[in-house]
Write a structure and sequence with these properties.
Strand order of the largest sheet: 13-19-18-17-16-15-14
CATH class of one domain: Alpha Beta
CATH architecture of one domain: 2-Layer Sandwich
Number of helices: 14
CATH superfamily of one domain: POLO box domain
Number of strands: 25
Distance between the termini: 35 Å
Length: 690
């Protein structure tokens, strides 16, 4: 915490210090000045641009919002007895003002002040509390340090470390452009802060020059978490259209269909790189609608009068890829040749007003400086942290007239939030086992006692699933290599459609996950990990137990001799069977005689995300039902892929041939093959590394 001790409160000259710039809940309006390097208007759930508002109307709206932000009293008293003295006004946003305040010990902070009168709905309150929760959970050398939060009868106060040397935006306004050595140094620190956030599943979503501040030692600090979001899982997506127009990634603008994730922060790095080296953002326009059009079409160029290296241009072009999957990762960015140039040991305050001289830097010293900068930014050692979890209790106040719950305020900074922990115990290493992989061991004695799984103990099945995901991923990568060779892969036998999950009902909040296979078999994967499988055209059923040492063990029972312990499970399975038969459609209209398997198949695990549902079947097939109603099933150790269209027609091909041709033979339209395969590989990697 870089607070200033024992000094009088004084003006810092920073109009936007540690505060959001022009926050608004209205739809965006075009910019009024071509001289501004950043749009001062942020988009919050806006889908289209509205015409310019009359100046007098806009002014009236601004005055109304400002009037809600009451100036704090000269002595701010808290409920804990710790008081603060208000200092000078630092700046304001759409609904918040920022002031210097000093505690009794003489330490000075920046206080972001939000009027309670502006918090008129549960949605607004939840948004504010979420910002506090996320920011408070951050602890990194390149992120503005959260100090505390409290409230009085009029305002909510968010105390932050004070950054007295303004922001990157202020520096660029004074200097017009920066040198490449400075930009390398600054971007290394910024990437360190972003990488830390991403390891905690936090997307900032409003990274821009005006939200990155200099501490007293001229180190950069990322601030303003007003638009930040937490992903429940790395594969999840967000769909709110938000951000600052000049910095919005193209996938955010189409958020209702594609969603966005960590890559939006990487896009912002590219925009900042360009702005620092050129003097303005790459898609700058005084018309917001034109900014969006340029972003969507990737319409930017490097001005001929700006001395930008080819290494910088290559990096910026790669980061500003319209397809988020083609952007380099944070670690890959630092491997570009751009970062192999002159690299300073530190940046001094003289940089704020004059161009520094780096002519003395040789290659060897620059490499040492770069390594030290990466280490200081947490980029050398692993910075994996438990992800942030937004708890319901954090968004609910205990007292009717208060905003902040006890878990957030006051003075609770030493008590860290409950964080998400990986409850799945890593399976122990085992030797490769033959017949147990992918199949349930069948017990001959149908009188054997029914038993449930013990989730707290590592199970053999965890390792089986991990190995099969690894094998499937390996097969997909091999198919990609085969496709790149451009040599068709000939298959000697007829490809048959694997058994698929045809219908399903997720009732895991009470019983479990019920499904119907394309073979017409009905199964229920109960919440205890065990499965009941009703075989089509049979008077028997299988009860498959998730076993500690054998993976899965199965017992067959006749319908006329149901053990008392299983009567409830059979009743539930019958209920779901009738429900699915009456209400749900089959996944495919194809002839079931082409199904590959001749023995019973059951669902061993399923995973739900915002973009797909993933099914892992006992024959090794892995099926993905995507959000857009397209479906794919990877089978035969990743070498074969089945595509099921929204109108329930299916086609099974060798994956290498599909990749080589760019599509399935019978599909004449874009199904987003590259994006879907990228999601499949990402999901498999997550299972392998779990």
């Amino acid at each position: 915490m870089a607070a200033v001790r024992g000094q009088p409160l004084q003006a810092l000259g920073a109009r936007e210090l540690n505060a959001r710039s022009r926050i608004t809940n209205q739809q965006i309006t075009p910019l009024k000045s071509t001289r501004k390097l950043e749009s001062e208007v942020e988009v919050v759930k806006a889908e289209k641009v509205v015409p310019d508002q009359p100046k007098d109307k806009a002014k009236k709206k601004k005055e109304k919002l400002s009037a809600l932000c009451k100036t704090p009293p000269s002595l701010i008293r808290t409920r804990t007895g710790k008081d603060y003295k208000r200092g000078l006004f630092l700046g304001e946003g759409g609904f918040a003002r920022c002031f210097q305040i000093r505690d009794d010990s003489g330490e000075v902070y920046a206080a972001k002040t939000v009027a309670k009168a502006s918090i008129k709905s549960d949605k607004t309150k939840t948004k504010l509390l979420s910002e506090i929760k996320i920011h408070k959970s951050m602890s990194h050398s390149n992120i503005v340090q959260f100090v505390d939060c409290f409230e009085d009868d009029v305002n909510v106060y968010i105390l932050l470390e004070i950054c007295p040397n303004q922001s990157l935006m202020d520096l660029l306004k004074k200097r017009k452009v920066l040198t490449e050595p400075e930009v390398r140094y600054f971007m290394t620190q910024v990437i360190g802060g972003i990488r830390y956030m991403h390891t905690r599943r936090v997307i900032h979503r409003d990274l821009k020059l005006g939200n990155i501040f200099f501490d007293p030692e001229m180190n950069l600090k990322i601030g303003d978490f007003g638009l930040a979001a937490v992903l429940h899982a790395d594969k999840d997506r967000k769909y709110t259209i938000c951000g600052t127009p000049n910095y919005i990634a193209p996938e955010v603008l189409t958020g209702k269909t594609t969603g966005h994730s960590y890559e939006v922060d990487i896009w912002s790095i590219g925009v900042m790189l360009y702005a620092l080296l050129v003097g303005k953002p790459p898609f700058q326009s005084k018309d917001v609608s034109l900014i969006y059009e340029r972003i969507k079409t990737n319409d930017f160029h490097f001005p001929a009068d700006k001395p930008i290296s080819n290494e910088a241009k290559i990096l910026i072009q790669d980061i500003l890829s319209t397809n988020p999957l083609k952007r380099p990762t944070l670690d890959e960015i630092l491997e570009y040749d751009f970062f192999k140039g002159p690299f300073p040991e530190k940046i001094t305050v003289e940089t704020l007003v004059s161009v520094p001289d780096f002519s003395h830097l040789d290659r060897h010293q620059s490499q040492i400086n770069f390594m030290n900068a990466r280490r200081n930014a947490g980029l050398i050692q692993s910075s994996q942290k438990n992800p942030v979890e937004i708890l319901r209790s954090d968004l609910e106040s205990e007292k009717p007239k208060t905003i902040l719950p006890q878990s957030l305020s006051p003075g609770n900074t030493k008590s860290k939030y409950k964080e998400v922990t990986d409850m799945a115990v890593r399976p122990r290493k085992i030797e490769e086992s033959s017949s147990k992989l992918g199949k349930a061991r069948r017990l001959d004695d149908d009188r054997k006692t029914y038993r449930t799984s013990i989730d707290a103990i590592p199970r053999f099945s965890d390792t089986v699933l991990q190995k099969e995901c690894e094998g499937t991923l390996t097969g997909i990568l091999a198919a990609e290599r085969q496709a790149r060779s451009r040599v068709p892969n000939r298959y000697s036998t007829i490809l048959k459609t694997p058994t698929l999950i045809s219908k399903w009902v997720d009732y895991s909040n009470k019983h479990g996950f019920s499904y119907q296979l394309s073979s017409e078999d009905i199964g229920v994967l109960f919440n205890d990990g065990n499965t009941l499988l009703r075989v089509n055209h049979s008077n028997s059923f299988w009860y498959i137990m998730n076993d500690l040492t054998d993976g899965w063990v199965a017992q067959e029972y006749k319908m006329g001799f149901i053990p008392h312990e299983l009567s409830r499970q059979v009743e539930i399975a019958d209920f779901f069977a009738k429900y699915m038969k009456t209400n749900l459609c089959k996944v495919s209209n194809d002839d079931d005689s082409l199904i590959e398997e001749t023995e019973e198949i059951f669902l061993r695990r399923y995973t739900r995300s915002d973009l797909y549902v993933m099914f892992e079947l006992s024959n090794g097939s892995i099926q993905f039902n995507f959000r857009d109603h397209h479906k794919m099933c990877v089978s035969q150790a990743g070498s074969v892929i089945t595509y099921i269209s929204p109108d329930r027609t299916s086609e099974t091909c060798l994956l290498s041939n599909v990749l080589r041709d760019g599509s399935f033979p019978s599909v004449a339209y874009d199904i987003g093959l590259d994006e879907k395969l990228a999601l499949i590989k990402e999901a498999l990697k997550g299972k392998v590394n779990a």
